[in-house]
Design brief:
Number of helices: 4
Strand content: 35-45%
Helix content: under 10%
Oligomer: single chain
Radius of gyration: 30 Å
Number of strands: 27
């Protein structure tokens, strides 16, 4: 608790009143900001008015973070309480129905100085200051997709944390997603391909085009557990673009671009050689990035020294190295056989056309028996391979 001495106009002498530990004595009618008169001063000093006592729950230079700020009054009513951090941001709060107390809606963040200003019904005021203890460890995060981006109808909202998140339910409660059309969706936790903790927000069905999506990650002052404290809020926003998907038929060696339910382009392709590690993954995956011309080396995906090539029009589908791209060296197999090292290869012309048309976040729906299995949840964005109920079960709030 913090003790706050009343403030009086300069030159006025007052009589001291006893104050209990942890309480603030506030001469409500005699503060410098109240415009008090000599008569009101005489009343406070001589016993005509009882001094007001206010208590603040946090005090000192090492106050405990992660708790709301509470202000209470012994007699009378609070009319206004303002709590401001050292950067000028306010902690919003609410007064109780009887006016006897006030509580902040968010917790005090670690390593932060705060100023408290309170007013009562008699026109008195008081101020207090405290600083929360610095965190031993800070947790940060990375958001996808990028701010102000336009993405495809399968793009999830994805958060990867720098350190482990033990308090998943508490963190999830502070991740607020709003959409322009009240899209239904849910968070789901997993371990990212990198080994870090990750949580994604996926709609029940593919997004509707032109949906506006905003995330407010109100995490400042939240303890993630053993991974440390969050010391800031995060925001991002994006818009859903064209209603299109890419259908890949492994068994018939075809790739089709479908827009608004209508087939726009059908091209021959050759996917991964079936029967081993070179086979492609099947399932509903999501275009993660358009990477253009990149160097692909087989040793990076566990295939020894099978290849080392510069590859054009590269479109990443998984973290494990499955792409759609130009593969002119495999032209003899386009439309007839799967003979690649796991990727979906096309001619230069067809790959260029597809590359120009697709957008990050477009679903690639890969079907067929010539596969080594279904893409894993964390190998890129594999959540669309789960049923809605299976996905909801991955929320920490279920």
């Amino acid at each position: 608790m913090s003790r706050i001495r009343p403030r009086f106009p300069l030159g006025r002498r007052t009589t001291r009143h006893a104050v209990t530990a942890g309480a603030v004595t506030l001469a409500a009618a005699l503060t410098a900001c109240s415009g008090a008169t000599a008569d009101s001063g005489s009343a406070a000093a001589g016993g005509g008015k009882k001094p007001t006592e206010i208590s603040v729950s946090l005090s000192g230079k090492q106050a405990k973070a992660g708790e709301p700020v509470r202000v209470t009054i012994a007699d009378g009513k609070l009319t206004q309480v303002t709590v401001t951090d050292s950067k000028g941001a306010r902690l919003d709060g609410r007064l109780s129905s009887d006016g006897r107390s006030w509580i902040s809606l968010r917790a005090a963040a670690p390593g932060t100085g705060y100023s408290v200003a309170a007013k009562d019904g008699n026109g008195g005021s008081a101020t207090a200051e405290f600083t929360t203890a610095a965190p031993e460890k800070v947790n940060k995060l990375t958001l996808a997709p990028g701010k102000n981006s336009t993405v495809g109808i399968a793009q999830p909202l994805s958060i990867v944390f720098d350190h482990p998140v033990k308090n998943r339910a508490e963190v999830e409660k502070h991740l607020r997603v709003t959409t322009s059309n009240k899209t239904e969706g849910s968070w789901g936790w997993m371990q990212d391909w990198s080994g870090k903790d990750r949580v994604d927000w996926r709609p029940k069905e593919y997004w509707k085009p032109d949906t506006k999506v905003t995330l407010a990650a109100e995490l400042n002052g939240i303890d993630s557990g053993s991974g440390g404290w969050f010391v800031r809020d995060y925001t991002t926003n994006f818009t859903i673009g064209k209603n299109q998907l890419v259908a890949v038929d492994l068994d018939n060696h075809r790739l089709k671009l479908v827009r608004d339910g209508r087939e726009i382009k059908d091209v021959p392709m050759s996917a991964g050689t079936p029967g081993g590690e070179k086979a492609s993954w099947r399932g509903r995956t999501v275009l993660m990035s358009k990477e253009g011309t990149i160097n692909m080396r087989s040793e990076t995906v566990g295939l020894g020294d099978a290849y080392d090539k510069m590859v054009d029009y590269s479109m990443r589908l998984t973290w494990s190295g499955m792409y759609a791209h130009a593969a002119p060296w495999n032209a003899g197999y386009f439309g007839s056989a799967n003979k690649s090292s796991g990727c979906i290869g096309m001619s230069d012309a067809d790959a260029r056309w597809i590359y120009d048309q697709v957008q990050v976040g477009d679903p690639f729906e890969v079907t067929g028996d010539d596969a080594k299995g279904t893409q894993a949840l964390n190998n890129g964005y594999g959540e669309w391979n789960l049923s809605w109920s299976e996905w909801q079960a991955k929320s920490a709030l279920r």
